[in-house]
Each structure stands twice: as C-alpha cells, then as structure tokens.
Queue: 3 jobs
Job 1
Amino acid sequence: MAGFDSQFRVPGMKAISASANEVSVFVNKKVVKGYEDLTFDGTDLVVTGNVFVEGAISASGHTSDGTTATNLGSGEGSFAQKVNNELQFRSVTAGANITLNSGTNSIEIVGTGGGAGNPAGNNTTIQYNDSSVFNGSDLFTFNNTTELVTAPATTISGTCTVSGNLLPLNDSEYNLGSPTHRFSNVYTGDLHLRNEKGNWTIHEEPDMLVVTNNLTGKKYKMHLIPLPEEL
C-alpha cells in the first residue's frame, strides 16, 4: 500500500495493519492485515513459509531458490542423486567390455564381452578367457538339451577323477590307449570281454581264475602252471 501509513483509515474501509512491502490480506473476512512472510517489493513476491496449491501452477520461467546442482564428471549420460537439498549429477562411463548408447529418454548399456548381454561365440559355445577378454569357439560347446560337451583334442596333465561312468559316445568305435600310447597297468574288478562273436567274463577266486561264457552260462577254470621262482 505505497503512499499510506500502516494504520491508514478511510470511511468504509477495513482497518489496515501492515509494514513496508507486506501484502495485505483479509483475516476472517473482517480485517485487512499484512504478514512478514508474504511480501512484495514491486519486483519479487516472496513467500517465506509453505505454499499450498489446490490447482495447477503455470510459469513461463523458473529461478532456483539457492539449491545447487553439480555436474561431477563426463560421459555418455548421467543420473541424478539428491544429497540433502542438493541435486547432484554423476556421469555414467563405459568400463571394460561395456558400450553406452544414449537415446532420447534412456541410456542403453551393452556388454561387448562374454557374460554380458551379447556373449562371444554362437549358441552353446562355452566362454573362456582370451587375453583378458571373454571369447568363444565352436570347437568347445555344451548343449544343455542333450547334455553333450564337445571339445578339441584335450590334454589333462593331472589326475582325472569321475564320480560316474566313463562311457564312449558310440559302441565299439573308440580305443582306450593306442599302440604308441599304452596304459602301463590296468586296475579293474571283473574283466568283461565282448565282441560280435563272444561274450566272456573273467573273475577272480582265491586260488584260480574263472572264465564265464555269458552266452551259455558255462564256467571254466583257467589252468595255472607254477613257474620257477627265478622267473
């Protein structure tokens, strides 16, 4: 109310009680009064307390109230984090085997190595470390439907222990050892021998070896002749 004092009165007007720059409002529909937390200096309207709005707010511009936003890096895109009253932005940067693709409203993270969204190799290929990068080869695969592992010629330098049966893929097709790569000793229980002509089992008794013809059920004792001790 520029040009009037804080207690200006004219006939027909309510009493006005306000200090400089205070916006006068009706209180209980009777008295016009000003408040220190609602002021207007001719340029800025300042509300010190909370503002309750029942409808929408439209504005042609925005000025910060002192809250700061700090950009803390560089990269393809960023995400927001609120720390107390401060809105901070940190950049998203690509690491090893990661590519960032920035879209209009999103950031796509794409893995370029194994173990990520696009692993190396084809379907069923087993991953391996290739100079700190995951790679895959069609020579080394695992089919989870058939439970079949395929691998190139493989050398195992230590002991190979299995908890189940060790079986060839096809019947009577593969060898155990070769003429130039023989096993020194074979440790086994009963020895089963079978081909397209015969089917025999050799098993041990305390003082003899017994051979069983599995086709006829007949059993035979192997004749063992003692040899001189020096042999």
Job 2
Amino acid sequence: MKKLMILVALVLALTLVLVACGPADYNNNPEITTYPDFDIDPNLPDFDFDIDDPWGGGEWVDPDGDPAPALVALINELYEGVDDVPMTMDIELTAANFEQFVFIDYVEGATGVVSQAMISAIPHAVVLIQLPEGADAAAVAAEIEEAADPNRWICVEAEKAAVFHSGNFVVFAMSFEGVVDGIAYNVGTVLA
C-alpha cells in the first residue's frame, strides 16, 4: 500500500512539473505577434479643448475652481491661532456644489470658499459664504443650522458643527470641537 501511495504521489508531482513548465516552444510561439505603431487618421477633426469652457456652452462649472483670493485670506484668518487644524484644500463655492457643502439650496448671487480636509476620512469643513447685499444672513445661517448633517462623511462624524453670521458673511464649520471653538472665537474679530 505504501508503494502505491508513493507511486501516486510521484505521478502527481511529475504531472504538476510538466503542467507548470508549459510547452517546450513557448519562447518561440508563432502566435505571439507585435503590432506596428498606428498612425492617427489625418481626416479626424481637430479637437481644440478649452479648459475654461470644455463643452463650448458656457455652462460648465469647474468643481475644483480657484476661489477668490480675498475669501481664501479670510478663511486663513479664521484659522489663526487654532490648534489641530488638518491639512486643507480650498474649493470655490458655486451654484453647482452649494448644496453639497451647506445642505441648502443655492442663494442667488452668493460666492464663497470651502476649506476641507485633504483626506476624506477626516471630518473637517469650514465654509465661508459671502451673500449679496441685502440678503438676510441670519435667515441663511438658521436654514443651514437646521439642515446641517455632521455625518456627511458617512464613515466619520464631526464632533461639532456651528454656524455664524456677521454682516453679509456666513461661516459654517464642522470639525473637531476645539477647531470649531477656535473658529468661533475668530469670527468676531475677522468678520466684525
């Protein structure tokens, strides 16, 4: 019985070796071919891609557009002296992404900047909204406060969310408690 088991094991080992090696002429297989480089058809139309208006309709909004430098400067002032602020990136707040960041419908004429964590697993976003003259900042702030979802990141949740307003500015912050408290302290001096 032992001899039969040894013989079966030897046949299986030999079979595995033969299968693993493949055919003897593998390196000279005539079915493997290299195709020549293809020339582009000269009859194709010339595509002139305009990064600012790629579809030619004037309606496209760059989701990562550059926000106004003055608003970025205000956001940076809101961070002054605040500890434990994660690495952030600034995104232009537009009609196209307004609801995504502030949870309410776009306020006509509003501009702004979103400062959010570069890593999506860090629950941090500070939104500075500049409303047009005559807009009711207190009403917009109240609407954001009611609609805000600190769990917008799905897997993580902001420790604290707060909405502030001063003049025609609204600041909406969702982050760690210390960061939101630091921004709250700065709002009074930066936007006064």
Job 3
Amino acid sequence: MNGPRKTLELGNVFNFRDLGGLPTDTGGHIHHGLLYRSDGLHQADDADLERLAELGLRTIVDLRTAEERDTRGSARAMELGARLWHLPLIDELWPSEGVDDSTDHGRYLADRYREMADVGHRVAPPLIRLIAEGDELPLVFHCAAGKDRTGFTAAVLLRTAGVSIDDVAADYARTAHAMEAMDAWWRAQARAHGHAMEEIPGAFVASPPEAMVTFLRELEESHRSMAGYLRSLGVTADEIDAYRDRVVSTST
C-alpha cells in the first residue's frame, strides 16, 4: 500500500475515508485525494463542513433513496462549492422481516449486493464516466451508513481500477469500527428526542470481509471480470481505460 490511508475525523459523520493508496494490479495505486467514501453527509454540522472544505470536493454523489433524501435532507453541497448528484441505487430499504440472529451475515449480504448489481446501471455507468472525465474530482459518494450501497459502489470502482478482491474486502471491513460509533450517535439522538431506537438486525450493521469476497467472486465468475460486468451495463472498454488512467497512479 502506497502511503497511509486517511480517515477524516468528523463530529457527526463516522465513516468518511480516502480510497487513495490501495495497490492495483499494474503495480500502481489509487491516487490520494480523488475518491472518498462516506456515510450520510446530510448529518455534517458546521465544524464538519469546515474540515470537508479543506478537501476541495467538487462532487457529492448521494446513493440514498428518494424517501431518505426527502425526509432527512441532503448534504450542504453548495457550502462546499460542490455539485450534488442523486443516484439512488435501490428504491426501498431492505425489510427486516425474516432477518434474525440465525441469519448468515456473509451469505445474506452477498445476496443483497448481487441484487444491487442487478440494478447497477443506475450508478456504475454514470459514475465511471463522471470520474473518467476528471473535471468533477475530487468526488465523494455516500449512502446512510456508508456500508452497503457505498460498499457496493466502492467495490465496483476499486475492482475496475485493478485493486485485488482481498484489498477491497479489507477496506469494506474497516466500516465495522465506524458502525460502533455511528450506532452510539444514533441512539443518543433518539434519546434526545424522546424516542426508543429499535434493535437493528445484526446483518444490517455487520461488514464481514467474506461477504464482499463472496459477492465479488460470484459476480466476476458470471461476467468473467468486473470489466465484463460493466460492459454488460453499457460501459465501453475505452471508458474503462479512461477511468483507470484517471484514478490509478503509477508513481511510487
């Protein structure tokens, strides 16, 4: 890995980090300071926005549903001088019925990510093309917790850039620590407003690396590669090459 991976310490945002530094199959690494992943940036307060402004963000991609955006608000993109894109990956949040302590977290999550892949045309092609053009970077993409929709999107972007499945899964697993802090914050917010917070199924908060490994191996086996998957969504080989040229550094 080339250089330290940065996790930005924010007050009301818990899962924000730079994808830069991850090694690729060409011997290079993902550029630092170009691609960031996060949980809900709509929660950022004034102090958080000051820290985020230092990154020079030009694009914020919101992967949440229309209902989440309408009820909880959006990131204050204009205050950061950034453009806001709403690319909902799914239409509705996962139902909790039938998900309990006996649920195999890894298998359950891998299956949900495969469902996301089935509607991946909503996010992957426009995001690959946006990044390839390069004019709207640095860019951050986020959902609510920064785990599932964000994890799926990060996996597609990183694998397309040539990051190994194991390294993608390790990045995904880093969310576990952030989820602990996020859960405590959510519960404190609920108590402050006089509400009891429902117990969330374990599979909804877990980020076991085997879930991402299983998902990626099965997806790439069925499409021969991540590039094959993207081509099935209409992304061209030239667009994939342009994307890789934009995000992968060959310098040491």
